[in-house]
Prior knowledge:
The chain is of the alpha+beta class. 41% of the residues lie in helices and 16% in strands. The chain contains ten helices and six strands. Helix 4 packs across helix 10 (207-218). The longest helix has 19 residues, at 95-113. The termini are far apart.
Amino acid sequence: MNKIIILDCENFDSILDSLSNIFNTDKSEILSYLNDVSLDEIWEKSIKERYAYEYLFEHFKQQFKINKSIIIKAYWFHNTRVLKGTDFIEGILPLEKAIIKIEEIIKKVIQNLDKSIKIDKLTHSTATIHKLNSDYDQGPWGFLIKEFAFEKANGIHNYLNVPELVEDILRFRYPKKYDLILNEYQKITTKCIVKFKSDRDFHPDTLAYVINYLYHKINNLEMNYQCNTNISNFRKTIPNINILEINYYQ
């Protein structure tokens, strides 16, 4: 029976511990490699048919051999904003269920501000409708690397600042009062990261994102979207029993 190894990207040290188990090596060796290797040199020597981070991972695997007798499972991180005290007893919900709760919060926000605020449109935006019609876009979503949520990365939505769904609703229904309502929404909610486990096997090729993240972190480079990846649960609720930890942030 194959041994199960958990990939836990909670923090820098847990990532290294996980990789040392997956590649059956000491984490000091991984650190040494990432300190010495040059992504620019690897890219210049490549045939440039893929992304640079993929060539970095291929180079990494030439130095470290994955333990083929293992099965990898990963922990994931759901980034959001919730009312203080939210316990996720119902689990992490897909869009079609989460939208009901979000609209209740927005209604409360408007009542706190001014009951005379008028809704511009009763329907959902095209973007929201598209997501509601797609099992993949329904989520719920999880990111692989927790601390990426606190990195400055161009082109990456900050879900701790405002969930994408909230932004879609406010921009479409209350365009003239968007900033006012969003500010109040942020006052009554708090940043939240939910750590959960998935029953799916983790494909080893996805480790390319982890190696790229570590390389950028160690070399103090600006992060980009290739330094993390995510998972959709395809319209299925992530049950409470799969939730490992809930962290709230100011």
